[in-house]
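Render this sequence as a predicted structure.
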Amino acid sequence: MTGEEITAELFRLQDREYGIFQAKLIPTVRAERIIGVRTPALRSLAKRLYGDPGAEEFLAALPHRYFDEDQLHAFLISPEKDFDRCIARTEEFLPYIDNWATCDQLSPKAFKKAPERLLPHIRTWIKSDRTYTVRFAIGS
């Protein structure tokens, strides 16, 4: 699936009323950036896309236009088991996180298995001038 096809799929999964509700909860994201895809649908899509060459293209296409694309991005990073690949993808993505919801959805599995390798990165992130990088460091 290409990046354009992924975005089209997000619009196919859209729930407009849910998008309106989300916009009220996430004031740092402009309402027109919210498609309104529910989290279970995003997780399901991420599961289908994980490992697909189109997902690699999507992950490389930063910044994303829509909040829901950012959410999907977080869900595509989270299952990565290779620590080095996971840390690289996380560090590429962190500067583009602009809200609490995406920050809190990013939960890489590889980090839980190697806390000693993660600690130096946390020490760097905690010193960031980016609010959500610091929030991610605290959560990690």
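Summary. Residues 39-49 form the longest helix (11 residues). The chain has one domain: 3-110.
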